TrEMBL record:
Residue segments, region Disordered: 295-345
Annotated Polar residues bias: 308-318
Species in which this protein is naturally found: Mortierella hygrophila
Name under which the protein is recorded: Chitin deacetylase
Gene name of the record: CDA2_2
Top-level taxon in the UniProt lineage: Eukaryota
Length: 374
């Protein structure tokens, strides 16, 4: 009898584990388009925040927009003048590669996840909401395997070209999609193309988001230039950037720009990451870099993942089962202040970290079992 119950229990768990995340796209805006601001959902979200006092900076034009000439005073436009305000632009942990991937999830993402799992590395995935509703199971897998999720907007439009209300719609629809898929409410974001100024920052702050840029041109892997730029050129260029970094004091780590948007970018990632491992650079997600034990916003319906301590290259970074976050630091507290780049990523941008999951889905499965058995 006990054996029968144990067997049935195992089958039940396997069945629950096999249940795919379901998101009904009909309940979301059109993919890859700026969501309308007149929908009941967006109207309700706009009522929750006060946008009065937002800087009155004119909207830019273009995809991505050209730099204004002459520059707009007090705009603090990162992609054009390197002004980062209080954006995070460097990994706070020394000698650490802040591992971030933008523009997913995609059909190429599982290959990257396999590699990260094999090498015991954790990353932050800056996901696009339009992709999130198409691949919710990939989001679940990312969380389950100790990665950190962050926002890269709904439709990947340059935010300085959008109204304040459109920015709210872009962020909140993405937040809703990831919350529905994983139970986690996003806290960090990366602006598409690194396109951010003080008006965008104002709106993001109202929504509780922390912008994460990348650590300047040298840490743009240029993976998005492939095949215009050959894979060999990308690897050679980035290898030299790593050599320069290794020769520095390495007091702070760096955030790279990488993408899990296609097999082209994922395949080159599998060749770039070993360059860091052989140089004995540690790896961490944004949560790991910033020692953030609460890497998601309040309102998450799943337990907060536990931040792991170890981020050494090739070493385990995921500690499972902890209910109470412990922010044992791998690095220095506080945000980076390194100046940003002066170029614009024509398609993508991203970031990564080392958090572990406190059995989010295991807990959900257990709850489901309890419900079924009751
Ligand atoms: Zn992007």
């Amino acid at each position: 009898m006990v054996k029968f119950l144990a067997s049935s229990f195992t089958v039940l768990l396997l069945t629950i584990a096999a249940v795919k995340a379901q998101i009904n796209p009909a309940l979301y805006p059109k993919i890859n388009e700026v969501p309308p601001v007149t929908s009941p959902e967006v109207v309700a979200w706009l009522k929750e925040i006060d946008l009065t006092g937002a800087p009155t900076i004119e909207l830019h034009v273009g995809a991505p927009p050209a730099c204004p000439n002459p520059p707009i005073a007090n705009e603090c436009y990162w992609t054009c003048d390197g002004c980062a305000a209080d954006d995070i632009t460097a990994c706070a942990a020394p000698n650490t590669w802040g591992l971030t991937f933008d523009d997913g999830p995609s059909t190429a993402t599982p290959t990257l996840l396999d590699y990260l799992k094999t090498n015991k590395l954790s990353a932050s995935f800056f996901v696009i909401g339009s992709n999130a509703i198409q691949y919710p199971d990939t989001l679940k897998r990312e969380v389950t395997e100790g990665h950190h999720l962050a926002s890269h907007t709904w439709s990947h439009h340059a935010l300085t070209t959008l109204t304040n209300e459109q920015i709210v719609a872009e962020m909140k629809w993405t937040e809703k999609a990831v919350l529905e898929a994983t139970g986690l409410r996003l806290k960090y974001m990366r602006p598409p193309y690194g396109d951010i100024n003080n008006r965008v920052r104002f709106v993001l702050k109202k929504l509780g988001y922390i912008p994460v840029d990348w650590t300047g041109d040298a840490f743009d892997t240029n993976d998005w230039r492939i095949p215009t730029m050959t894979e060999a050129q990308v690897i050679d260029t980035f290898s030299k950037s790593l050599d320069t970094y290794v020769a520095s004091d390495k007091a702070k780590g760096f955030y790279c720009l990488e993408h899990d948007v296609s097999s082209l970018t994922v395949n080159v990632a599998l060749k770039l990451l070993p360059l860091g491992i052989t140089r004995k650079i540690n790896f961490a997600s944004v949560a790991g870099c910033e020692s953030d034990a609460q890497p998601y916003q309040a309102g998450s319906t799943a337990p907060m993942p536990t931040l792991s301590a170890g981020t050494s290259a090739g070493q385990p970074t995921a500690t499972k089962g902890g209910a109470t976050p412990s922010a044992s630091a791998t690095g220095v507290a506080g945000n980076g202040t390194v100046n940003g780049p002066t170029i614009v990523d024509p398609k993508n941008k991203s970031g990564a970290s080392s958090i572990a999951v406190s059995g989010v889905f295991a807990a959900a499965a257990a709850a489901a079992v309890a419900l079924i058995l009751a």
